[in-house]
Design goal:
single chain; alpha+beta; Pnp Oxidase, Chain A; 8-stranded antiparallel sheet; 4 helices
Protein backbone atom coordinates (compact mmCIF):
# COMPACT_ATOMS: atom_id res chain seq x y z
CA UNK A 1 0.00 0.00 0.00
CA UNK A 2 1.44 3.36 -0.99
CA UNK A 3 1.95 6.15 1.50
CA UNK A 4 -0.25 8.43 -0.63
CA UNK A 5 -3.18 5.99 -0.62
CA UNK A 6 -2.75 5.26 3.07
CA UNK A 7 -2.83 8.97 3.91
CA UNK A 8 -6.00 9.58 1.84
CA UNK A 9 -7.69 6.61 3.52
CA UNK A 10 -6.85 8.02 6.94
CA UNK A 11 -8.31 11.42 5.99
CA UNK A 12 -11.56 9.97 4.66
CA UNK A 13 -12.55 13.13 2.77
CA UNK A 14 -10.22 14.82 0.32
CA UNK A 15 -10.70 17.75 -2.06
CA UNK A 16 -10.13 17.76 -5.80
CA UNK A 17 -9.41 20.94 -7.72
CA UNK A 18 -10.27 21.10 -11.42
CA UNK A 19 -10.64 23.90 -13.94
CA UNK A 20 -14.16 25.05 -14.85
CA UNK A 21 -13.64 27.22 -17.94
CA UNK A 22 -11.09 29.70 -16.47
CA UNK A 23 -12.08 29.29 -12.83
CA UNK A 24 -10.79 26.77 -10.29
CA UNK A 25 -13.44 24.42 -8.90
CA UNK A 26 -12.90 22.46 -5.69
CA UNK A 27 -15.17 19.78 -4.28
CA UNK A 28 -15.03 17.00 -1.67
CA UNK A 29 -14.56 13.36 -2.65
CA UNK A 30 -14.50 10.29 -0.45
CA UNK A 31 -13.81 7.14 -2.46
CA UNK A 32 -10.28 6.25 -3.46
CA UNK A 33 -8.75 2.91 -4.39
CA UNK A 34 -5.28 1.58 -4.97
CA UNK A 35 -5.23 -1.23 -7.52
CA UNK A 36 -2.00 -2.87 -8.70
CA UNK A 37 -0.02 0.12 -7.48
CA UNK A 38 -2.19 2.73 -9.22
CA UNK A 39 -4.52 5.26 -7.59
CA UNK A 40 -8.17 5.52 -8.73
CA UNK A 41 -11.07 7.85 -8.01
CA UNK A 42 -14.60 7.88 -9.37
CA UNK A 43 -17.44 10.20 -10.22
CA UNK A 44 -20.74 10.16 -12.05
CA UNK A 45 -21.10 10.95 -15.72
CA UNK A 46 -23.90 13.45 -15.07
CA UNK A 47 -21.79 15.63 -12.71
CA UNK A 48 -20.10 18.82 -13.89
CA UNK A 49 -16.76 17.56 -12.54
CA UNK A 50 -16.79 14.82 -15.20
CA UNK A 51 -17.09 17.45 -17.95
CA UNK A 52 -14.19 19.32 -16.37
CA UNK A 53 -12.07 16.15 -16.33
CA UNK A 54 -12.79 15.68 -20.05
CA UNK A 55 -11.89 19.25 -21.01
CA UNK A 56 -8.76 19.45 -18.85
CA UNK A 57 -7.50 16.33 -17.14
CA UNK A 58 -5.07 18.07 -14.77
CA UNK A 59 -6.11 17.81 -11.12
CA UNK A 60 -4.86 18.61 -7.68
CA UNK A 61 -5.97 16.72 -4.56
CA UNK A 62 -5.57 18.10 -1.05
CA UNK A 63 -6.47 16.46 2.25
CA UNK A 64 -5.96 17.32 5.91
CA UNK A 65 -6.04 14.75 8.71
CA UNK A 66 -8.68 15.69 11.26
CA UNK A 67 -7.28 17.07 14.50
CA UNK A 68 -3.77 17.52 13.06
CA UNK A 69 -1.81 19.82 10.79
CA UNK A 70 -0.80 16.83 8.62
CA UNK A 71 -1.71 17.31 4.97
CA UNK A 72 -1.11 15.89 1.52
CA UNK A 73 -1.08 17.52 -1.91
CA UNK A 74 -1.22 15.42 -5.07
CA UNK A 75 -0.80 16.71 -8.62
CA UNK A 76 -1.55 14.61 -11.65
CA UNK A 77 -3.84 13.86 -14.55
CA UNK A 78 -6.85 11.59 -14.74
CA UNK A 79 -7.72 9.13 -17.49
CA UNK A 80 -11.00 7.28 -17.77
CA UNK A 81 -10.82 3.51 -17.27
CA UNK A 82 -13.37 1.17 -18.82
CA UNK A 83 -11.97 -2.15 -17.53
CA UNK A 84 -14.93 -3.86 -15.81
CA UNK A 85 -12.66 -5.84 -13.50
CA UNK A 86 -11.12 -2.65 -12.10
CA UNK A 87 -14.52 -0.94 -11.93
CA UNK A 88 -15.85 -3.87 -9.90
CA UNK A 89 -12.82 -3.66 -7.59
CA UNK A 90 -13.68 0.00 -6.92
CA UNK A 91 -17.27 -0.92 -6.11
CA UNK A 92 -16.09 -3.75 -3.84
CA UNK A 93 -13.83 -1.25 -2.09
CA UNK A 94 -16.53 1.40 -1.56
CA UNK A 95 -19.88 0.52 -0.04
CA UNK A 96 -21.20 4.02 -0.82
CA UNK A 97 -20.46 3.63 -4.53
CA UNK A 98 -21.83 0.08 -4.63
CA UNK A 99 -25.18 1.36 -3.37
CA UNK A 100 -25.41 3.82 -6.29
CA UNK A 101 -23.78 2.03 -9.21
CA UNK A 102 -22.91 -1.29 -10.77
CA UNK A 103 -19.86 -1.91 -12.94
CA UNK A 104 -21.95 -1.77 -16.15
CA UNK A 105 -23.62 1.54 -15.30
CA UNK A 106 -22.98 4.22 -17.92
CA UNK A 107 -23.03 6.81 -15.13
CA UNK A 108 -20.24 5.15 -13.12
CA UNK A 109 -16.96 6.76 -14.18
CA UNK A 110 -13.65 5.32 -12.99
CA UNK A 111 -10.55 7.49 -13.28
CA UNK A 112 -6.91 6.54 -12.84
CA UNK A 113 -4.49 9.19 -11.65
CA UNK A 114 -1.40 9.26 -13.87
CA UNK A 115 1.77 11.35 -13.91
CA UNK A 116 1.20 11.72 -10.20
CA UNK A 117 3.47 13.40 -7.71
CA UNK A 118 2.60 14.11 -4.13
CA UNK A 119 3.95 15.82 -1.06
CA UNK A 120 3.01 15.34 2.58
CA UNK A 121 3.58 17.38 5.68
CA UNK A 122 3.55 15.17 8.76
CA UNK A 123 4.44 16.63 12.15
CA UNK A 124 6.02 19.60 10.41
CA UNK A 125 8.19 17.43 8.15
CA UNK A 126 7.65 18.08 4.44
CA UNK A 127 8.31 15.04 2.21
CA UNK A 128 8.00 14.70 -1.57
CA UNK A 129 6.53 11.36 -2.64
CA UNK A 130 6.66 9.85 -6.11
Amino acid sequence: MSRTYEFLQECGIYYIATINENVPAVRPFGSVMEYEGELYISTAKYKSVYEQFIKNNFIQIVALKAGTRDWIRINGKVVEIHDLKIKQAMLDDSEKLAKRFNKDSEDFILLKIIEMNSAVNINGEFVELT
